[in-house]
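FW: tagging you since you asked about this chain on Friday. Here's the raw sequence from the shared folder, copied in full. Didn't touch anything.
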Amino acid sequence: MLAPLLRPVGNALGAGCGLAVAVVTAVFYFMDSGRSLDYDSSLTVGAFVKTGSILDPLRRQIQLNNHPLFSVLEHLVWSAGFHSETALRVLPIVFGCLTVALLTAYCAHLWGVLPGVTAGAVLATNPMFADLSRAVRGYSLLTLCGLASTLLMWRMLESEPPQMPTPARRLIEVGYVLFLAAGISTHLYGCTVVVVHAAIVAGRRRFDARWVQRWVVSGVLGSLIYLKTLNVVLDTHNARAFHSAFGREVVLSLLGQARLAAAALGIAVLGALWIQRRRVEFFAAVGAIAVFVVLVWVVVQPQFLVVRYWVWIVPGVGLAAAFLVSRRPVAIVLVVVAIAAMANHQRDTWTAVDTPTSETAAVVDAARAQGMDVCGYLHTGVAVLAYTRQPRTRAETFAEMAKCDLVVGFYVTPVVNRVEQAEFPYHWKISGLTPAFVYSRKSREAVMAGVTRPRLTLETHRRTFPS
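HL: got it, structure written out here
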């Protein structure tokens, strides 16, 4: 019964299959796209998008939140007059959907419609990929560049020695270099894609000067965008810290976050590797990723080490699942279980406000209008930057907070919350997956008197940076 769905299809049908899965993905990704920007997206928009010059993303870096190429593209959107949260989410969602479409079309062309849909669905429902594709950040563009460059690399490996006409081979080579460069220009972890490609090429015994030249050119082109900010990126003055749970967290995130999904997709990946156990290049790629992760995690130990830097690997999980389904159709049961578990994992948070940045900005503006001294707890100030100027004072200690008339804070610990509730006569929370805590010398009703809207828009203040 499944046989017709397990036959390779032509380019046109494969593209149609990819488009269909991408459209379905877009319908879900655009749900409630007008909600408040999350913490990092707000900083990105405030400091690098809502600015006076399109060159601003090339001039500064704040808390490593600037993904330069992506910020430049979003600056173009803003400069063209599209000033809503939905408008700024269009690019990352489109990049995410294009990644889903490309993976689906590729797998359908190789193995059939069922494996193609399998790959696209596994990628689209992965909670980390879905969340980052709906944020105003560059991770979906990084993933798209990583996938496109990998598929082009594979095409070149399959066609060397030359079997294609020279112009076609040259076009593919240029595309490969440009996608690699674009990934690096978006996020420095795009360089790890080159490491994995080098391992694959070496595993295929094709490592030569031509490949080194391609990687060098990609690296140089991709790094040009960092000329003004690279010293800031490399010299962050952050302390070293060992995150003992990081290894487990990165594996869990790549395999779908939900434990049932991780178990099902883990079996699928291992099954695909077992079938291809004679292909050295696949194990070289997995080994390169593992070595690089361990190197960063155990040896470098950066203070801010987050699993989202590895989101570009998620299409590989979809690819492995698709391959297993093409060889062992019964594995579709594992895929269905994984997709259902991932969808259920996101069910309660899909349209929820992650961080109430615009709502918190409204409180900040209202307090300022009354002449209150507003402070931001630790890094909270930059979280409202897309909507209003950050608080003048960054309060880090209890003594500093005690001098303020109103303190807003995200990621407030229970200890800090208890102390501040005792210090300030009024306190309340602004709802969100990461709620905002407000401590005030005046009541909520007094602070918000005369305020008719519970949140600010991105156009309330056309310029919010620098303060």
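FW: Strands lie at 374-377, 393-395, 406-409, 426-430, 436-440.
HL: agreed, and The chain is about 60% helix and 5% strand.
FW: great, closing this out.
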